[in-house]
Amino acid sequence: MGLSIFACLCFFWPVGIFAIIKSLEARNRHMAGDYSGALTSAQTARYLAWGAILCGVILYVIIIAVESAK
């Protein structure tokens, strides 16, 4: 959950929101006893969070490159 929130707030929020949703889904499934579903949702949340971080870093680099070229 922490990685998802960090990715949403600091990097690329559109993907980060989906990571937070999947993290909440993983927590709810774990509490309901669906451990395999929780593991799948947690893994998806992790991939989405890292994707948000990657998109954010790429976007920041592009913005810096465009602004420095002016």
Automatic annotation (TrEMBL):
Where, subcellularly, is it found?
Answer: Membrane
Pfam families to which the protein is assigned, alphabetical: CD225
This entry carries the following GO cellular component terms, namely: membrane
The alphabetical list of record keywords is:
Membrane, Transmembrane, Transmembrane helix
The organism encoding this protein is: Paramuricea clavata (Red gorgonian)
Which superkingdom heads the taxonomic lineage of this protein's source? Answer: Eukaryota
Transmembrane helix as UniProt keyword: yes
Q: What is this protein called?
A: Proline-rich transmembrane 1-like
In the record, the note on similarity to other proteins reads: Belongs to the CD225/Dispanin family.
